[in-house]
């Protein structure tokens, strides 16, 4: 009696059937693993349980107590934005912020915490005031304020000037009390070419003033570049050229009996435009007469020619 397909008469599994059964088992295992991985990826990350966890998820910067007003102001500004984004309660801001103090700043808070709370309270504004008082001395504040008052665009681009203006304006709140004062101060210290155009119609906001100054500055730089290119392409005209000017008239000079031209000693050479140099070429070498082959004069100045002419004239008529 013949058994089922793939099996022997004794009911034993053939090699081919065994291989198919293993392949089916492996395929089912791979599908289960993939399905489990997809479900795990679709599951959202667990929500933070505390305000501290919410803030920590944004990786806040740390402050180590360096005496740099810009660094301190930047750290306070970033932490304040995180408090707003995470809706941090007022009574937890100081506790969370002090966790990100390091080195000298952390040592200062550990030593002065009780005194600061007793004198100023435990609010965020009081904490920032005490932090600035310790790591942001009055002398540094005055230096930054003076730096802002002396700030001008100079050789900077409008973008670089605006970045520096915004950075230093935080240290001059007494000078810039509102948006109008900010705009006027910004427009006052741009370059003259930009200011002459921008100041014609004052802007209402700092952003408008910045956008207009940026556009005008780009136009000014384009015009300057085109002017330089035009001057560069202009052909070079040497000083000895007579282009665009009248050629000097030839100065007639009498010839002396010795064959040398007579006249003022400061007469200019018509070829090299230097003082007249009788008997020599412009390079200083002696001239050679084509008639008598002697140096020191030209053919039309040859004394032998004039002696012959003179002898003819002196003969009988």
UniProtKB/TrEMBL annotation:
Keywords: Metal-binding, Zinc, Zinc-finger. InterPro entries: Retrotrans_gag_dom, Znf_CCHC, Znf_CCHC_sf. The keyword Metal-binding applies. SUPFAM superfamilies: Retrovirus zinc finger-like domains. PROSITE patterns: ZF_CCHC. Residues 289-304 form the CCHC-type domain. GO terms for molecular function: nucleic acid binding; zinc ion binding. It holds the Pfam family Retrotrans_gag. The keyword Metal-binding applies. This is CCHC-type domain-containing protein.
